[in-house]
Specification:
Helix content: over 70%
Pfam families: MerC
Strand content: under 5%
Structural class: mainly alpha
Organism: Sphingomonas suaedae
GO molecular function: mercury ion transmembrane transporter activity
Order of helices and strands: HHHHH
Keywords: Membrane, Transmembrane, Transmembrane helix
Transmembrane segments: 12-41, 47-68
């Protein structure tokens, strides 16, 4: 696979992590500030589960391709840690006050892991 395709996968993953972070930070603030929007912006109960189902294989694929090229463990470890946090947020802390904090931490770690992966692949 040529580097442009690998960078595309990392870029897609960074975009998805950014959307996740925006969702975790901005949507609750919007819903608190404007309760009338809650009926229009309500997400299905299983949205986070399915987002995780998509994030795990796509991130694993992008990170594996990058690792084969650059052999740096830091991006891989950061991404795995981020996915673990996202999984814990959904599967362990779902419905608790800790859920958002753990999900935000995971989203940031995953996004930075993909950014490091993309940077390492380019060099």
């Amino acid at each position: 696979m040529i580097p442009v395709q690998r960078n595309w996968l990392d870029g897609l993953a960074i975009g998805a992590s950014t959307l996740c972070l925006s969702h975790c930070l901005l949507l609750p603030a919007l819903l608190i500030a404007l309760p009338a929007l809650a009926t229009f912006l309500a997400l299905p109960e299983d949205f986070h589960f399915w987002a995780l189902v998509v994030a795990v294989p796509t991130s694993a694929f992008a990170m594996t391709l990058g690792y084969w090229r650059h052999r740096r463990k830091a991006p891989l470890l950061l991404a795995v840690s981020g996915l673990a946090c996202l999984g814990a947020a959904e599967l362990v802390f779902h419905g608790t006050s800790q859920e958002a904090c753990v999900a935000i931490s995971g989203s940031l770690q995953l996004g930075f892991g993909h950014a490091l992966n993309m940077r390492a692949t380019r060099h």
